Amino acid sequence: MNHLLAFLNLGIPELVLIFFAVIPAMVLWIVCLVDIVRSKMSVTNLLLSILLIVMFPLIGSILYLIIRNKLKEPAQA
Fold first, then answer.
1. DSSP secondary-structure letter at 72?
2. Residue ranges per domain, the chain?
3. DSSP secondary structure letters along 23-62
4. Mean pLDDT across the chain, nearest whole number?
5. Which residues pair with 72 in a beta bridge?
6. For the segment 19-30, what is each residue's pLDDT rounded down to a tens digit?
7. Residues 66, 49: contact at Cβ < 8 Å?
């Protein structure tokens, strides 16, 4: 394992950054994409949400989580 880390020129600070910043951001991105695909939105809102998250992964995911209830279609009685 140490040979691989030396080959990739990764030290402890880089591993900490990957573990505490990159991996959670990727998980958030994937969770938001799954939520968008499974939600009941109009096609326009669905495509705009996916485009926002693909173009701006971290900021787009956070913004989507803030406004997602407004994007979903109201329940029909």
1. B
2. 19-71
3. HHHHHHHHHHHHHHHHS-B-HHHHHHHHHHHHHSHHHHHH
4. 86
5. 41
6. 888 899 999 999
7. no
